[in-house]
Design a protein that fits this description.
There is one protein chain. The protein has a domain of about 190 residues: Protocatechuate 3,4-Dioxygenase, subunit A (Sandwich). About 30% of the residues lie in helices and about 20% in strands. It is globular. The two termini are about 35 Å apart. The structure holds 3-methylcatechol and fe (iii) ion (FE). The site of 3-methylcatechol (MBD) has 12 residues, from helix 4. This is Catechol 1,2-dioxygenase. Keywords: Dioxygenase, Iron, Metal-binding, Oxidoreductase. Its cofactor is Fe(3+). Its EC number is 1.13.11.1.
C-alpha cells in the first residue's frame, strides 16, 4: 500500500475488503458437504420465493434486484454487504454456548499479523494523529478466574475520520493496528486515540441499497478486538462508547449492552481512559 496524499475514497474500502477476504479466508469454503449445501440453498431460495409471492414482486423489481446484485460484485462489496447485514447472526449462533466475554462480528477490515507496538503499548499512529487520546486497559482471565499470562490482545480501529489503514489510501500500513501481549498477571495497557463513528461506504452498491431503502449508513464508533490465549477460545469482539448517537441503532446490528464502554477523563484532562477485562472460555 502506498502512502500518498490521495483523500481516502470510501468505496475503495469495500473493494479492498474483497482482496483481503480472498487472501485470508476464501479457501475454507470448499469443505461444505453436499447435503448441507442442498439444505441451506433450498431454504434460502424458499424464503426468497415466499417473499416474492407474499409481496407480488414485479418484473421491474426483479430486474432492479438483478442489476443491484451484479453491481455488488462489480464494486467488490460482497464482504461489506455480508458483514454488515448477515454476519451478526452467524456470530450469535457461533458463540451462544460461551460463558466468557461477549463477542461481536469481525467485519471486513481485520488484517492478521499486526506488529507488536514498538513504542511500549502505544499503537502505531501518525505524528499528528487526530482524536482524543484513549488509554484502554484491562486483564485477560479464564472463566475460572485465573489470569492468562501472555494472552494476545489484537486491536484495530478507524481513525478520527472513520478510515481504516490498508483499506483507505494515504494511511500508513499498520496505523491504529496492533497486537499486544499481556503481562504475567494477564494485564494490558494500550494507548490509542478515540475512533470516530463509522459511515459505511455510500458511493458503492451497499450505499445504493441504503439510499433506496431510506436507511442510514452509520455504525457507532468502535474498537475491534481479538483476544486469545493457549487452551482457550479466541474472542472476536467490538467495544463501543456510551452516548454515541448510533450505539443502539447500528447498521450492522453488532452492539450488545455488555460491549459499551464508559471512559472517564484522565487525571491530566487531556484524554480518556477505560478498563475492560476479557474472560475466555476453555477450548
Ligand atoms: C466496519 O468498520 C465494520 O466494523 C463492519 C462490521 C462493517 C463495515 C465497516
Ligand atoms: Fe469496524
Amino acid at each position: 500500500m502506498t502512502s500518498d496524499t490521495v483523500a481516502p475514497a470510501a468505496a475503495a474500502s469495500g473493494a479492498s475488503a474483497t482482496e483481503r477476504f480472498f487472501a485470508d479466508k476464501a479457501s475454507s469454503a470448499a469443505a461444505t458437504p453436499t447435503e448441507r449445501v442442498d439444505l441451506l440453498a433450498r431454504e434460502v431460495l424458499d424464503a426468497v420465493h415466499a417473499t416474492i409471492r407474499r409481496h407480488k414482486v414485479t418484473y421491474e423489481e426483479y430486474n432492479a434486484l438483478k442489476a443491484w446484485l451484479i453491481g455488488v460484485g462489480q464494486d467488490g462489496e460482497w464482504p461489506l454487504f455480508l458483514d454488515v447485514w448477515v454476519e451478526h447472526v452467524v456470530e450469535q449462533v457461533a458463540t451462544e454456548s460461551r460463558e466468557g466475554s461477549k463477542g461481536s462480528i469481525e467485519g471486513p477490515y481485520y488484517v492478521p499479523g499486526a506488529p507488536e507496538p514498538s513504542a511500549g503499548t502505544t499503537l502505531p499512529m501518525r505524528e499528528a494523529e487526530k482524536g482524543t487520546p484513549l488509554l484502554f486497559q484491562g486483564q485477560v482471565r479464564s472463566v475460572s478466574g485465573e489470569p492468562l499470562a501472555g494472552a494476545r490482545v489484537e486491536i484495530w480501529h478507524a481513525d478520527d475520520d472513520g478510515y481504516y489503514s490498508q483499506f483507505a489510501p494515504g494511511i500508513p500500513e499498520w496505523n491504529l493496528r496492533g497486537s499486544v501481549i499481556a503481562d504475567e498477571a494477564g494485564r494490558f495497557r494500550i494507548h490509542t486515540v478515540q475512533p470516530a463513528p463509522y459511515q459505511i461506504p455510500t458511493d458503492g452498491s451497499c450505499g445504493k441499497l441504503i439510499a433506496a431503502a431510506g436507511w442510514h449508513a452509520w455504525r457507532p464508533a468502535h474498537l475491534h478486538m481479538k483476544v486469545s490465549a493457549p487452551g482457550h477460545h479466541l474472542v472476536t469482539t467490538q467495544l463501543y462508547f456510551t452516548g454515541d448517537e448510533h450505539v443502539f441503532d447500528d447498521i450492522a446490528s453488532a452492539v450488545k449492552p455488555e460491549l459499551i464502554l464508559d471512559p472517564r477523563p484522565t487525571g491530566d484532562g487531556a484524554g480518556r481512559e477505560v478498563t475492560y477485562d476479557f474472560v475466555l472460555d476453555p477450548a
